[in-house]
Amino acid sequence: MSRSMTATTRSVLSTRVALFGMMASVCVVGGSLAHFARASTHNVAPVLAVSTPRRVPVGPSNAEVAQPSEAARAALGKRIFFDKSLSEPYGTSCASCHEPARGFAGNHGSTIGVALGSRQGHFAARNTPSVMYLKYTRRFHLHWEEDAPLVDAYGGFFWDGRVDRLADVPKQPLMNPNEMNNRSSADLLEKLRQSDYSGELRREFGELDDAERALQSLGEALAAYLTSPELAPFSSKYDQFIQHRVELSALEARGLRLFKDSAKGGCSECHKLNDTLPSPERSLFTDYGFDAVGVPRNTKLPVNRDSAHFDLGLCQRPNPQFHSDSPQFCGAFRTPSLRNVALRESFMHNGAFSSLREVVAFYASRATNPRRWYGKQEFDDLPEQYRENVNVDKAPYNRHAGERPALDASEIDAVVAFLGTLNDTTLR
Fold first, then answer.
1. Residue 322 confidence (pLDDT)
2. How far apart are CA 355 and CA 358, in angstroms?
3. Peptide bond connecting 396 to the previous residue in cis, omega within 30 degrees of 0
4. C-alpha distances in angstroms, 137 versus 46, 123, 350?
5. How confident is residue 68, by pLDDT bands cut at 50, 70 and 90?
6. Per-residue model confidence (pLDDT) at position 375
7. pTM recorded for the entire structure
8. Rg value, the chain, Cα
9. Most Cβ neighbours (<10 Å): which of 116, 151, 189, 234?
């Protein structure tokens, strides 16, 4: 989001300076001062929000509680992840919207770009993000890049980075009436007591006698599964390529060059990679940042029947510590990892696109042929006062209507071919 300063953002600049100074003294990650520099800039792996399961039981002290085992908790978490009894009504599991064959994303049978919930006619507010490689997600924080006019935001889970601990993530879809629709943690507790893994839950976390503690235990078990090697396999053709085990095809290699070319695709500006090192974790294909890219409005979403409804993304994230509700963040959403992106059914935070080629074409020609994407009004999924937040400075957005697009049709095909090399071969 490093763009030229605008009228709206200029008014918050002085408070950003004070905020950033305060933040540097209070933001702590894993017991140490948070490292605000971009991971890719220094060629190191990102700070982990969750690297391993917690080493202490969540439940009360109890001699019968087993010492936690990563493998045991991950196995338990996997059973929970695929359990269809945890929705109301029965039939929807975490895996219903995070399908392994879809790179642990998916729409649960919906055709409108966002996932269907456990009840017909109820849909998630945003497109389902992949839950792979979450062990590398950093906590939400702000960082002021040298010479940048404004502070940037990074990290956190969900499209708006609103949750820092992976164990706290499951509560939201479980309790959301438009997703898994549990009415209360007490109702969920009863389902856990009746599950065929209730004994394992007790051995790992203690008695299931408190609804909130049981919900926390469920979250810890799911976090163990989501941070297990199964969810970060690094088994793609790209991974084999950087390890010098296979060669890319001529089309894929061309796509990689265009992906990195700052004058063409410019994709690697936000979707970070390092193809010179044989370490796959250095190529996570995201900087965990936020950007306003001006995605077209998805008119298929029921909520968008109201012309006054807008999803403003990051600036609707509640957090008094970081004041992420600043107007400069309206319209910005988290940059997703592109690993397994070719397996997904819909794309962008609102599911506006249904093909990967369409996404690449949008990036390439949004500036040069806006009518193709918006009709009469550019950036039509943002209120007028926030349209100035949309990134128009960096390639491929820094062109003008009528000019040649950043990528032609054959170059778009090449980038799409390269993105196909990011599919993990271990997914079923």
1. 83
2. 5
3. yes
4. 7, 26, 21
5. low
6. 83
7. 0.85
8. 22
9. 151
